[in-house]
Design goal:
Elements lengths: L2 E10 L6 H19 L3 E9 L3 H9 L4 H18 L11 E4 L3 H15 L10 E11 L4 E3 L4 E2 L8 E2 L7 E10 L5 H9 L5 E2 L1 H12 L5 E2 L1 E3 L8 E2 L2 E6 L1 H6 L1 H4 L13 H5 L2 E6 L3 H14 L7 E5 L2 E2 L16 H7 L2 H11 L6 E2 L2 H30 L14 H6 L7 H19 L3 H22 L1 H4 L6 H22 L4 H10 L37 H11 L1
Parallel strand pairs: 1-2, 1-14, 2-3, 9-15, 14-15, 16-17
Antiparallel strand pairs: 4-5, 4-8, 6-7, 8-10, 11-13, 12-13
């Protein structure tokens, strides 16, 4: 069986979960369900990055120990994932990875020792010890060069250009990774494989960064300054720098360098791994991570895909000072999870920035779900219940009824619709395989519009009054219901609960999570089949009511 390993970043455990965590994990969950449906043996990882100076400081500020701090954040993140159906019990992630797990300590120390025993592509030791002086941004978790910070008027200490926070001066002995020796091989790998770093614009940024010259990377901190970390093998006075610790979780979680996770199968899953990350951490997941893997003699991932950021409805960055933060608990309280999942994938083209506001979510949910898919389901099944006693009719139109069908614009030959559906199915699958989620969904919504138009123009409520139009009415109802069956199977990864509900209302009971969209064939819905009870799946949202409730709690 083909394997597919998908990861989110492991989220830094110094602050509470936010929309960014929810978005990346939702997209990964959708892809995981899609690949399972397509017959892959999948493994889905998310979790928390739990070491470093930021954790120490957050713990001190909150009067907790570092372990209490990371436990608190991990529990909050798990709760958010459970609220939105992303946890293991709901078919979500396979492992919630934590870098404080003992097996991770064992695995990352094995990685360090392996790298330390090897030579760089230019024949030098991979790891060496030296003295380091630099400005360090705790928020970025990286050292800054002169082009990456500013000294403001009246201040002596520089600030990070990204976070605008005061930098820390670090002057200490450190272990270094000889990153400068990996420039040529990194360019060879990235330029030679367009799928390795995506999308193309981000790939070009990484290539430019490498060509600008790589500096050796400090990969440890003196334990006197940063005590909360994994000890460097053979040197208890140093702990590993957070990036080598955090990045290695992707391999230790599936058994690299440790016995506890070995049963999962490092060799099985690492051969087809895909990292989904935010564009702000792409450099670490490509330049640094690729170099670590090459230094250890390991294969590179199949793809590192950098998605964009959510901006507010006016295109501004979200922040508490602007009062435009989208809170996960508000989303959970006021919106269906499937409506949110659909919005996240439809509203933002994966890889680009997108705009998010509660108003936009309400508008999209009402237009596409309540009025679109939900209305198609409700009106179709209600008419079958009303006009055909809840039984799926035979959709055939025989010669004697051709002229009557044509009079109301219904083609006697269903093959025209079947061909359109098959093309839409293939386009949807192709785009989904390419992580072009928004465009893939747009393809299916064109089908929904087409079927809705067929129903409106043929007017079943009039056809039922004319005995000559019996077969026309049957054909319209059958075609709409069979199309709904196709839509449920194709849309399951995006909206698992809603599609299951519609599928059940059609009267079908097989597990759609195991039905491969590529295998869809027209006509599998049998005539004479009894449908279930037709109920609204996507209630229309009252914008004024919801926005008032949100603003009152703000």
């Amino acid at each position: 069986m083909k394997t597919f390993y998908i990861t989110t970043p492991i989220y830094y455990a110094n602050s509470l979960p936010h929309l960014g965590h929810l978005y990346t994990t939702t997209v990964a969950d959708v892809v995981n369900r899609y690949k399972k449906q397509r017959g892959y043996d999948t493994f889905f990882l998310t979790g928390t990055d739990e070491h470093g100076i930021n954790i120490q400081r957050a713990a001190e500020e909150n009067k907790r120990t570092p372990q209490e701090q990371v436990d608190f954040i991990a529990d909050n993140l798990k709760k958010m994932f459970a609220d939105f159906g992303l946890n293991t019990e709901n078919g979500g992630y396979d492992i919630f990875m934590r870098t404080t797990n003992p097996f991770h300590y064992e695995g990352v120390q094995h990685l360090w020792k392996t790298m330390a025993s090897n030579k760089t592509p230019k024949g030098n030791p991979v790891i060496y010890k030296d003295f380091y002086k630099a400005w360090f941004c705790a928020a970025c978790a990286e050292f800054k060069t002169e082009t990456e910070y500013e000294i403001r008027d009246g201040e002596d200490i520089p600030r990070c250009l990204i976070h605008e926070k005061i930098l820390d001066r670090v002057e200490e002995e450190s272990y270094f990774f000889r990153l400068s020796d990996y420039d040529e091989i990194l360019l060879e790998k990235i330029e030679g494989n367009p799928d390795l770093v995506r999308p193309e614009g981000r790939r070009n940024e990484i290539i430019s960064f490498i060509k600008s010259g790589l500096q050796d990377l400090s990969i440890s901190r003196d334990k006197k300054n940063v005590s909360w970390g994994i000890p460097v093998p053979g040197d208890e006075d140093h702990v590993m720098y957070v990036w080598i610790d955090a990045l290695s979780n992707y391999i230790t979680a599936i058994g690299y360098g440790n016995d506890q996770q070995a049963g999962i199968g490092f060799e099985k899953y690492w051969q087809n791994v895909h990292h989904f990350v935010g564009k702000d951490i792409l450099r670490f997941h490509t330049v640094y991570w690729f170099s670590f893997l090459l230094a250890a003699g390991l294969e590179l991932p199949k793809t590192v895909y950098a998605h964009g950021m959510w901006l507010d409805g006016e295109g501004r960055k979200m922040g508490k000072t602007l009062g435009n933060v989208i809170e996960p608990n508000v989303l959970h309280e006021h919106f269906q999870t499937d409506a949110l999942r659909y919005f996240l994938l439809r509203e933002m083209s994966f890889g680009q920035d997108g705009k998010f506001s509660y108003e936009n979510l309400i508008e999209r949910a009402n237009a596409d779900l309540a009025k679109g898919l939900g209305n198609l389901s409700s009106r179709t099944l209600s008419m079958i219940d009303k006009y055909r006693d809840g039984m799926i009719p035979d959709g055939s139109i025989h010669d004697k009824s051709f002229i009557f069908a044509k009079r109301v614009g219904v083609s006697p030959d269903e093959q025209e619709l079947v061909s359109i559906l098959e093309l839409a199915r293939d386009e949807f699958l192709r785009k989904f395989d390419d992580f072009d989620f928004s465009s893939a969904l747009e393809t299916l919504w064109k089908i929904i519009s087409r079927i809705d138009k067929m129903i409106t123009e043929s007017a079943p409520w009039n056809l039922v009054k004319d005995e000559n139009q019996k077969e026309t009415l049957n054909a319209v109802l059958y075609r709409a219901t069979e199309t709904l069956r196709w839509l449920c199977i194709l849309l399951y990864p995006v909206m698992p609960e809603s599609t299951r509900e519609i599928y059940s209302q059609i009267g079908l009971s097989d597990d759609i999570s195991k039905l491969n969209g590529a295998d869809l064939k027209w006509g599998a819905l049998e005539a004479g089949h009894k449908i279930g009870e037709a109920k609204p799946v996507f209630p229309r949202l009252d914008s004024n009511k919801i926005m008032t409730a949100i603003e009152e709690k703000a």
